[in-house]
Each structure stands twice: as structure tokens, then as C-alpha cells.
Amino acid sequence: MTQTSPLTSTQTGVLVLLRLLIGWHFLYxxxxxxxxxxxxxxxxxxxxxxxxxxxxxxxxxxxxxTIDTLNIAALLFVGAALILGFKTQLASLIGVxxxxxxxxxxPPFPGYPLGPAEGSYWIINKNLIEAAALLVVFLFPTSVxxxxxxxxxxxxxxxQTH
Length: 162
What we know:
Layout: H1 9-34, H2 42-46, H3 52-58, H4 64-84, H5 88-105, H6 126-139, H7 148-161
Helix pairs in contact: 1-4, 1-6, 4-5, 5-6
């Protein structure tokens, strides 16, 4: 069994850049929704073209307020965590979950109507690509190299040596 070599500083830098860009995207989406008083996911959920009964249930009067709040909170948490480099693995998994929900509400599957999109897609769209990128961020965490977790890692190491 061969041992893999650690990432080079260039590779780490590129992964940090990926983490920061995705973090900015999530944070911006959360802030925009938070400060748009009329925003709700209801229309998006009701227009779902796949697994309609599940997404219509999420859009129901008894659920939509909670769903809107959870969506905004998750976007803000994922964005802030990725940018700050704190709890990035947890944030990555939550981000993947959100993106997969967005993907399956309006998947670009053959035979299904296209939902709201900025282009033409077939099977693969931006949500799926960003989810895959978050899996890379999860598998290759960079927050100990560049992020708040670096300070906690140093503090943990120094307390173990004393």
C-alpha cells in the first residue's frame, strides 16, 4: 500500500480558493434572501418537476415558514463557515444536501420540463457541479492551513505538549 503525499502549497491554495468562492456564493445567496422581505422558496418548491409531492409538502402552509428560515440559515452557515475556515467539513455536507435538494426539485432529466435555469442543461447542471466541488472541499479540508481551525489546531497541539 502506497502512502499519498501531502498536498503542495499550490494545490492547497487552489482548494482554498475553491472553498472561498463557494463560501461567497452561499453567503451572498443567504444574505440576499434574508434582506428580501418578500422572499420565499414556495414558488420554487411548487414548481418542482420531480418528486413533486415531497416538494409540495415542503411548500405547504404548515411548513413553508420553517423551510424558508432553515434555507436562509443553512446558506448563511455554509457560506460563513467556508469563508472563515471553521467547521468546513460539516458546512460542506450541509451545502451538498442543500444543492441536491435544489437539483432534485428541477433536475435536467430527459423528458422533464426545464425549471428556472440560466441555460440549457442535460442531466448535469450548476447545482450538481457545485455539490461535487463541495465534496472535494470535504475530502481535502484546507481550514487547518488557511482558516480559523488553524488557530484551534495550534492551541490543541500546544495544550497536548504541556
